[in-house]
Amino acid sequence: MKLIKIAAVAGAAMLVAAAANAQGVDFSKVEITTVDLGNKTYMLVGQGGNITVAVGTDGIIMVDSQYAPLYDKIKAAIAKISPLPIKYVISTHYHRDHVDGNELFNKAGATIVGHDNLRIRLAAGTTNLFNGNKTPPAPAGAIPTMTYQVGDMKVEVGGRVAELRHVINAHTDGDTWVFFPDANVLSLGDTFNRNYPNIDWSNGGGIDGMVLAADRYLKAANDNTKIVPGHGALATKANLQEFRDMLVTARDRVKKLYDEGKTEQQVLEMDPLADLNPKWAAQQGLSSGPSFLRNVYNSFRNHN
Ligand SMILES: [Zn+2]
How far is CA 103 from CA 67, 112, 195, in A? Predict the structure, then answer.
């Protein structure tokens, strides 16, 4: 009895520590670094999802906006690249670390662009069944006014085109990936990360969609493509291929156990991805080994 009590207290303490880490980012200490991708296209790294910036002759297209408290720093980093106005902010998906800056960029004149399912989730608010976290509805200025549902969409500023495409039920149900053909840059949001990805199965994500998305990207990329992941360092097609192969391995192993009727707890105890964890598991959070395993398992429960 005593042992159980101690374990419960330790578990609660760990949860509190994890929450503090997630919330406790000191934005004043975050620096924005700029990576030149060539052809007036840049990747900005700060806190939250990576940003892509494409400069045309009369304005700028931006992909993702990180956190609102970083707005001034992101603006300053972009001003060093170009004095032109930011005309469009494309949101790859609804997660806060990718869209929190939208409202401020919109206030400064940018049109917010995204898939219609992202619009619905931002407007309605969401619940993450993995941890019970609730996200309230986003402020009106953060919600896209330029949306698409099926097919592709193009966003243009002088001399530059961003090609937007939707992948079905991958990281969420409202994912957009962006191709800048003249710079050979792919901007993939969290459908591609350098660690295990988070798969938001409570909001339409799933491992099968993640694999299909990676297959589409491999077709779109060549050996010179610069790939901006949702999180982590700039990547190549070879990195994407490794990521895709890891996803397929994870899917096949967990699907087999799921089809055999193993419960989530049994699968966690069997630890079928143990050999992948040293390379792919981040230290904590939704891309840790156990969390990824749970996300893969639950994507079958959700979609089959
Ligand atoms: Zn995300």
Answer: 10, 9, 29
pTM comes to 0.90
**pLDDT band for position 284 (50/70/90)?**
confident
CA separation for the pair 288, 187 (Å, rounded): 23
CA 2 to ligand 1 centroid distance, Å: 40
Query: With left for phi above 0 and alpha for psi between -120 and 50, is residue 272 left, alpha or beta?
Result: alpha
Mean pLDDT of 106-124: 98
Question: Phi/psi of residue 201, each to 5°?
Answer: -70, -20
**CA 96 to ligand 1 centroid distance, Å:** 8
What does the radius of gyration of the chain's CA atoms come to, in whole angstroms? 19
Q: Ligand 1 centre and the CA of 92: distance in Å?
A: 9
Residue keyed to tokens 């931006």: 62
Cα-to-centroid distance, 5 and ligand 1 (Å)? 35
Q: What are phi and psi of 37, to 5 degrees?
A: -95, 0
Ligand 1 centroid to Cα of residue 178, in Å, is 15
**What's the CA-to-centroid distance between 281 and ligand 1, angstroms?**
16
Alpha carbon of 229 to ligand 1 centroid (Å): 11
